[in-house]
Amino acid sequence: MYNSALYKDEPLLQFIDVSKWFGPILALSQITWTFKSGIVGLVGANGAGKSTFLRLAAGLLRPTLGEVKIAGHDAWDWRSRRLIGYCPSTDAFFHDLSGQQFVLVMARLCGMTRREARKSTEAILQRLGLHDLATRPIYGYSKGMRQRIKLAQALVHHPPLLILDEPLAGIDPLGRHELIGLFRQLNQEGHSLIISSHELETLEQLTDQILILSRGRLAAAGTIAEIRHQLSEYPITIRITVSSPRELARQLIDWPEVSAIEWPASSQHTSCNTLLVRVHRPREFFQRLTQFLAQNTSWDITCFESIDESAHALLGYILGGSGKT
Amino acid sequence: MKGVDSQLLQFTPWEGNHTRRHAAAVAILRISLLLIVRQRLFWALLALAALAFFFFFYAQYLLVWISQHLAQETIRIAGFPVSVSNLLRFLDRLALNGSAHTYGNFIWFQGYIIVILLAFSGSQLFGNDIVYGSMLFYYSKPISLWHYFYGKCCTIALLLLMTTFIPAIILWIEAGLLFDWKTYYMQNYHLLLGITGYSTLIALTLSLLTAATALLFRRTTPLVLAWMGLFVLLRLISNWLTLATQDASWRLLDLWNNLYLCGLWCFGVDHATIRPVPQPSYDAACLVIVGIIILCLMYINFYLKYLYK
């Protein structure tokens, strides 16, 4: 039997050189990744291997090569699933059952006694704001309530690791906001979460830790800043507001790191003193700029910001597309 | 993001005593039963099964009452006088007399309803889980897929026992009360064992067959067609071939007849009294049933091995 003392010293989830084949199709290729705690967002285009990745993490699939470990134990071992709450993307429920009955059975499957299961079910339904509606059949639930019920069954046995496959899909903005708040709260209480989503902006609100899958390969992992740092060739656009923009542009255009300089259309966010500098080797550019500004202190720079440092832009670059998944 | 250590310190996982994993099968049985009893078709089929039971129940009572009170009388049927004793001799062919054939015939008649019930339950219990992906909910919990199948098969077995074993036991108790109960119960306790054996065999074989066919066909319509093929078409074919060739071996194609033969073997019935004739030997019927059980287990094992790997 697992207890908290056992898994405190081990990473919660480890992928060690994991590959997964479905017949002739390579779904995941040589993934090595360690997750200790916190919230991590899993992003990637359709067919990138997100669901396969999550199912391997939840011990629902066995890797063709490599190992997946939950707190140091084989994820395929049924005991490892005691440490996991898995919320599948599928919306297939037992529609005739009430939410309470469904969660209660799931609690019993986790090895709880009848009394503990009942107690835990009531607590989790209360927690997720479903207590009043719990006796209603699931077929009458809205999309948001279904997501909450799925979350309730994943949380009912208090697992340290929650694996959520597209938990925000199809949720209206208000419901999404509530769920994000809930995920944050769960994380603050000590649950670790792996969340797959197409909503990059939403994931950005929740965590800066992301994992990017592309065609079955782990394209990038870490915080958005770390990933950017790793990609020294990742081009960025910098908005600079300065008292004499034409003079600065004349200086910068000769630098090899700068690929273009533009004058943005005037709007409430920009003034006529603003210029956009497209940089293709950011690290070198920033080093050079620091030296340049130290030598020439007369520049009156009032604004200096990267305008495409978001996960969306980063993903677009990594996946070679627009970033839309 | 907060520090790792502080998060772990705040987190208090559930560390209660885990029940045995077999208890999960009970939970699956419970949820499966709930799913089945909420379907109207189930109640319609149960009503039909109850109808067959009440026919046997009251017919048995009526025949005993007639034989005890009107045996010497003559009644008029369509204007013709008929001796009640002659009528009783004719009705004896129905074997509504608390003998092994009473229970054997009763379970045989329930077969028609059972076939539809199982085709329907198979798609509800197994097919939907696979087609709509709800099996993931079960399998993401700390149980193995064998526990899942164990729980589901137990549900089917329970449905079968509800339609065969329990009513047959009531008929046995009734038969004892209609005759001299002490003598009947003492002399016919082996029938009770026979009912148990026959019902258990049906529950075991058909629950595995339901699971295997549901995994193969998944959706209700193909599943019903498959069951009709197995239990109706094969029966017709086996009847024609047996009549045409007078070779009893062709009856082995009829699965329900094989179960019936095994059931009568449990009752200890003399093979020569089994109708219709010719019938294959008890051994051959048992071999077919064992073969089907093994095949079903092999298929389920094969399926489980490759389902999530």
Automatic annotation (TrEMBL), chain A:
Keyword ATP-binding: yes
InterPro entries reported for this sequence: AAA+_ATPase, ABC_transporter-like_ATP-bd, ABC_transporter-like_CS, ABC_Transporter_VariousFunc, P-loop_NTPase
Gene3D superfamilies: P-loop containing nucleotide triphosphate hydrolases
Residue stretches making up the ABC transporter domain: 13-240
Gene Ontology molecular function terms on file: ATP binding; ATP hydrolysis activity
This protein's UniProt keywords: ATP-binding, Nucleotide-binding, Transport
Top-level division of the source organism's lineage: Bacteria
Database matches in Pfam families: ABC_tran
PANTHER family, A to Z: ABC TRANSPORTER ATP-BINDING PROTEIN ALBC-RELATED (PTHR42939:SF1)
Protein name according to UniProt: ABC transporter ATP-binding protein
Taxonomic source organism: Thermogemmata fonticola
Lineage: Bacteria, Pseudomonadati, Planctomycetota, Planctomycetia, Gemmatales
